Amino acid sequence: MSKPRISFLSDDEIEAIHNASLQILTKTGMKVMSQEALQILKKAGAKVDHEANHATIPGALVEEALSRVPKTITYAARNPDNDFVLDKQTPHFTTTGMPAFILDGETGERRNSTTEDLACYTRIVDYLKNVHSAWPSMVTTDMPGPMQCLMEFITVVRNTAKHVEHEALNARDARYQVEIATAIVGSKEQLKERPIISAVQCVFSPLTYEKGMIEGAMEYARAGVPVVVMPMPLAGTTGPVTSAGNMALNNAEFLGDLVILEFVNPGAPVVYSPGVGAVNFKTGYHRWAPESSLMHLGLNQLVHHYDLPSEIGVMGGGSKLLDAQAGYQKAISLITALLMAPDIALGLGGLGGCICPETLTIDNEIIDYALRYIEGLEVNDDTLALDVIDKVGPGGHFLGEKHTLQHFREGWMPEITDMETFEIWEKKGSKSIAQVAKEKTKEILATHKVEPVPDDVEREISRILKRAEAELLK
After folding, report:
1. Which of 122, 244, 327, 341 has the most CB within a 10 Å radius?
2. Is residue 217 situated within a structural domain?
3. 463 membership: H or E segment, kind and range
């Protein structure tokens, strides 16, 4: 079967970006705010200045790290039926994260997100067939600051049987998450074999590894939990204004992080997640632009060059409403990204800097359309249908043909998208896609039952939570 694919950077351009990244690491170097991470780099052979929190990393260490990192990763889940593999063959999807706001479906107002909002949103994730893992997509602003990260994690674990991807701002939070995941799967060895969680670690562009996040990532790496390394340089502010320069910086930040994690635990699972972006120089605010998509596409091509698992941002946009702008920006960015065959596409459910459950429901349908698009088409004797065409002949029709009966279900059909005549649409209430999505979202929350955490595991989670409260809120 012929599948549409994009590959627009030449081999020489890929090599140029890689070599530029190595020069950044060997000449400019990285600021590493963790003495523990600096010690690991020094032991590996990097040039380290502990007082300046600075390290330069030889290209040989990068090559060694690239040889150690797994090329495929299994993302396990509480329910094994939801397991999937990052093998550069099939795209999977996860939600966006993590604003502190939600667009309230009842009032239409933007407000601070709560633990209950996150629980409801996660139940929708658990239902939707095209969402394969759950990132805690909003901040639990009703929780005390020190407890927010852990409560977000626990809330999602309790409300989906799918894979959970989160983050930790320090090693302590990472250890608590690993402890809970271990309680669910049964042992540390089983967690390494079937990691039901993964963790995002953002790099502070340009070229800075913040102490808490890098030490949290190191804890995950030791536990065999996949670490999703996400540099986020913005062209012209925290990265060079040119796309090529911003890509080289993003790649250097990833490779430096990879060296640390692979020398912490050789063979630690790591996922490359380019987070490059563009900025509106009138306001300083991030903007969704064609350049962002091009940089993501180019870096995903570089990920394939390294033969690494990837997670790429898609379906973003600047619209604050469920309108035409939201739709076209999401669809364009998704389809172009899928043509590069990422392992995970990140970004579902976001709307103009906040979370919108109705948007998540619509995004699920956009994905369904896009998956059919990238599936391509097959050309053979059966699909060319010459015998059927000859049988029907001029002026006939194909409705009654066995060939039609055999193949008509292959055509894409929507669940919430309107494809009726005007008269039928009007008879059904003249509803917009936003109204239909709102009704569908309410239906999911009213009827979908999440597979519960076993009672003994729930008791252990509660004990861990009580211990964390005593430590973090003292």
Report:
1. 122
2. yes
3. helix 455-472
Q: Say whether both 393 and 370 belong to one domain.
A: no
Domain count across the chain = 2
Which residue(s) pair with 450 in the sheet? none
Q: Are residues 392 and 294 in the same domain?
A: no
Q: Is 209 in the same domain as 335?
A: yes
Domain of residue 76, CATH code:
3.20.20.480
Lowest mean pLDDT among 10-14, 38-42, 345-349, 464-468: 345-349
Which tokens belong to 42?
A: 């020094």
The helix (run of H) or strand (run of E) holding residue 235 is: strand 234-235
**Computed over its alpha carbons, how large is the radius of gyration of the chain?**
24
Helix (H) / strand (E) element for 257: namely helix 243-264
Q: pLDDT at position 399, please? A: 94
Handedness of CA 441, 445, 447, 452 (dihedral sign): positive
- The string of pLDDT tens digits covering residues 326-361 is 888 888 888 877 887 889 999 899 888 889 999 999
Of 182, 187, 214, 213, nearest to 197 by C-alpha is 182
User: 288 pLDDT exceeds 70?
Assistant: no
CA distance 131 to 57: 38
Asked if residue 244 is part of any domain, the answer here is no
Domain containing 223: what range?
72-234+270-375
Residue 273 has pLDDT above 70, yes or no: yes
Residues 112 and 211 in one domain: yes
Does the model's pTM come out above 0.70?
A: yes
Place of tokens 């369904």: 368
